[in-house]
Amino acid sequence: MSTEKFAAIVDDAARTAKAIPQLTAESPDLSVEDAYSIQAQSIARRLARGEHRVGVKMGLTSRAKMIQVGVDEVIWGRLTNAMRLEEGGSFSRAKYVHPRAEPEIAFLIGQPLSGEVSPLEALAAVDAVAPAIELIDSRYENFKFTLPDVVADNSSSSGFVLGNWAPKDTPIDNLGILLEADGRPVQVGSTAAILGHPVRSLVQAARLVARWGEALAPGDIVLAGGATAAHAMTPGMHIRAVFQDLGSVSIRCVD
Ligand code: OOG
Ligand code: MG
Question: How far is the CA of 25 from the centre of ligand 1 (A)?
């Protein structure tokens, strides 16, 4: 099947919140290269509907995440304005297949960044950092996929919530994180779980976007990847991520 047809399949699945079989079930030879092209074409469909690109998300940048989904390679996906959810607001469970929330660090890019850069160069391009929750929603049945499947599905990206921006020189190398569901702790971790330091995720983001002919631009948001395993959301559930020194960010799941 053509990458264009696959792009329509993943895009329709996301748009209608209907689970689909893995693309690799039908095309076992699907390469990661093909998968990124499917992702780009599926995002082009969103842009054609009026959404616009606001940044990128990194995925599988911590051991906890790799183990949870059984894929151990760093991946990336694109963020659009339609994926941004209001901090302290709510989202409808019906619009997602099986949403999960994970605590992340967000970077606000101030200077263009692309290609091979050092952690110091990456940090120099940052304007601010914020606590964040990413809402991931694999479009595949049972949240099961291979590397090409998840890449084609925009790396499960479906929503994100940003807390308050903090100055770029706020240390973020080893901040304690608590993820609460309805006030009870469900995950505990540290920003150090993100490749040893979240800035390393930004270094990878610069490298990976360049590999696919893109760059990080001023105003872009970069999500560094989940620091803990993700937590499944059910209607009524209130999820809050509390970050040492950075504050907290929350959202509620409704019917
Ligand atoms: C893949 C996306 C991973 C992260 O932060 O590691 C991701 C998935 O878990 O469905 O967003
Ligand atoms: Mg994530």
Answer: 21
Q: Which two tokens stand for residue 153?
A: 């599905």
Is 225 a pocket residue for ligand 1 (Cβ < 6 Å)? yes
**pLDDT of the residue at 79:** 98
Question: Is 108 within 8 Å of 153 (Cβ atoms)?
Answer: no
Written as one string, the DSSP assignment of 108-133 is EE-S-B-SS--HHHHHHTEEEEEEEE
Q: How many CB atoms are closer than 10 A to CB 152?
A: 32
CA distance 189 to 107: 19
Mean pLDDT by 10 residues, the chain (255 residues): 95 98 97 98 98 98 97 97 98 98 98 98 98 98 98 98 97 98 98 98 98 97 98 98 98 98
Q: Is 102 in the pocket of ligand 1 (CB under 6 A)?
A: yes
71 C-beta neighbours (distance < 10 Å), count: 19
pLDDT at 222: 99
Q: Count CB-CB contacts under 10 A for residue 58.
A: 27
Q: How far apart are CA 251 and CA 131, in angstroms?
A: 13
Q: Give 67 Cα–ligand 2 centroid separation in angstroms.
A: 14
- 118's tokens: 């050092």
